[in-house]
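#struct-help
A.M.: can someone run this one for me? Single chain, 105 residues.
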Amino acid sequence: MPTKTGYIDYYKLVMPRLRRGGLVLADNVLFHGQVLQPEVEGKSARAIQAFNELVASDKSVEKVMLTVRDGLFVYPKKVKPDDDLQVDADRGRMDGRLAAGQRPR
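D.P.: on it. Structure tokens below:
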């Protein structure tokens, strides 16, 4: 992942290339808790806050933010652009297709 100020550029570069069901992780998205303060100070903290807002507003991805350490954003691209992500844990796929060796039910 690029420097904190490059997260948005990276997001815009990767998302068109990411297949549906593909997964991206972004680290340090809580930025020492600074992005949660009423007044966000510092170039990097403001950049991370803007990145978080961009991901939160993107309807093409599901969003999960883990509060482990300094925050981890997990965002899989939705299988169908306006639908909720369908996860088939038994088959190990998030795109609705069968994993190798699986049979239809």
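A.M.: thanks! The beta strands are 23-27, 64-66, 72-76.
D.P.: also worth noting: Helices lie at 7-14, 43-57.
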